[in-house]
Amino acid sequence: MDKFTLLDGLVAPLDRPNVDTDAIIPKQYLKSVKRSGFGPNLFDDWRYLTPGEPGQDHSRRPLNPDFVLNQPRYAGAQILLGRENFGCGSSREHAVWALEDAGFRVVIAPGFADIFFNNCFKNGVLPVVLDTAIMDRLFAEVATQEGYRLQVDLQAQTITTPSGERFDFDVDEFRKYCLLNGLDDIGLTLRHADAIRAYEVRHKQAAPWLFD
Amino acid sequence: MAGKTLYDKLWDAHRVREDADGTALLYIDRHLVHEVTSPQAFEGLRLAGRKPWRAGSVLAVPDHNVPTTQRSEGISGIADPVSRIQVETLDRNCADFNINEFHMNDIRQGIVHVIGPEQGATLPGMTVVCGDSHTSTHGAFGALAFGIGTSEVEHVLATQCLIQKKSKNMQVRVEGELGPGVTAKDVVLAIIGEIGTAGGTGYAIEFAGSAIASLSMEGRMTVCNMAIEAGARAGMVAVDQTTIDYVAGRPFAPRAEQWQQAVACWRDFVSDVDAVFDRVVTLQAGDISPQVTWGTSPEMVVPVNARVPDPAEEADTVKRNGMRKALAYMALEPGTPVSAITIDKVFIGSCTNSRIEDLRAAAAVAKGRKVADNVKLAMVVPGSGLVKQQAEQEGLHEIFMAAGFEWREPGCSMCLAMNADRLEPGERCASTSNRNFEGRQGAGGRTHLVSPAMAAAAAVTGHFVDVRELAGKY
Fold this sequence. Notes:
The complex is a heterodimer. By secondary structure, chain A is an alpha/beta fold. Chain A has helices at residues 21-24, 44-47, 94-101, 114-121, 132-144, 173-181, 185-190, 193-206; strands at residues 6-13, 79-81, 106-109, 126-129, 149-153, 158-160, 166-168. Chain A has a seven-stranded mixed beta sheet with strand order 4-3-2-1-5-6-7. Chain A is globular. Chain B contains 15 helices and 19 strands. In chain B, 31% of the residues lie in helices and 16% in strands. Classes of the chains: A alpha/beta, B alpha/beta.
């Protein structure tokens, strides 16, 4: 996993609540057995005017001019603003893979669905929760200021606007540590292999039917 | 000290270790695997030179990509080559890592959340995970069951554990008696309508109260299945005699002396009377009517006798805009009576509503009636090969086929349209599945979530109708 420390990135807005993971990456692309290559199909149904299938040359499909992320001013954005309950629905980690593959490293919203939130941290993507009132201001600022950027500092847990305004955010200590260092948490868990084995011995005594 | 909730007990019984900040290692008893969210996890194991910690805890089945017609050619009969590769990949991974898999043409094959309980692979007191958000279904057994991403699938394969922080406790009580024609699906849709799709975010929900206790295991599974649509990763129901009776004699269930020992242990998987919940929500069963969703989020739901709501009456700007987008996508006008909405297709199936009780309820409505002329396709997709077999023994397939429904092979099918079953752009569907998101059942398709009885009623009338108005047929 890539480390995440400090990011100064272009911001794109997606101003609608309950953006679900079906919208982020539609089902037909879940047939892939790989982890990469989902970027061109991020928000596929909204982004293109024609239906898409895996294996197609997506660069030849007509773009939907009404979809906000297709505006040239947001090309190369690394920070996505969202609304309440972002990432709800299916557990598909492909949603985060698609965001990451399309260049997004931070999603800021007033609330995230639990599974999506969790999946972000496994892929070097930082989900940040900010109050709705702050989100309203960020949406307003990005709409009026072309080239709007934010600075995201994970170590300091701050987001800084171009005018120097700073917002603090919370992040779980363990997740922060893993992101800052780009750590594979399977390796971390296996450091506790003895504790897992000891638990298994106790658990098997209490519930032997689980081990047959 | 206050007593423990069911969730507290399940958590404590599976905690391997915990750091000062509450980050814990949670032991996983049962790992269910399907073809869509597992290939990258197995590949990760290979790349790191790792093996499954306890391969015997894993049960795998292909369900999302499998065709629901003609199965005689097996995997080679899957027309879409990309789908075929995914099913083949699951077979190969299970063979390579010595994992028990029910293959596509095994009679025990079916939707992962149907076959786990059906086989007794889901047991009370367990932790159950799967790379699938509807894993919450298994909480109906007094288990802690939740969906995980593919990185976590790999983590559980490699370590038998997950790194977790404990959720808060929510109790949703449904008290009293459900009216005739009102089902578990209507209960859970009403709950989602009440608390919203983010209402359960950060919580584990225990469903309780006399109306929940009166539900069959199938009904409890329907309710827990959609805990995720209420925002909660895990939903659960306390263990009682109904639970134990359902589990008894299932292929993976304990036997003989171990059965007695297990039952004694399982009876403790209930919330203590003095347990404290962070939030309690109470609904009266008698107030719940058959429900129909009108929008593109499961919280956009109304009773069948209501009208499509008007965004102009919503005070919150973000919500109002969301409603407008939903109505535009659904091609509906505010104020339209739900019963005036006509449909093109009907889907009875999915991990929410494809068990035998669901098929019986739909068949009771379909019996002696015909699918309406304006309905292009009405399909019934049993949750597993064994559900299909049971339904056929009861003659349900003949009722459906006589009414003009198609009787299909088991799988996820048009719940998410990864196989060939899908809506065409603009088509409107009465569906017993769990998500009405844009494009969920096919790009441009419009989904209305309902119970199996309501779906059958819509099929035979061509529009939504209160199933209670169809005389004597519920």
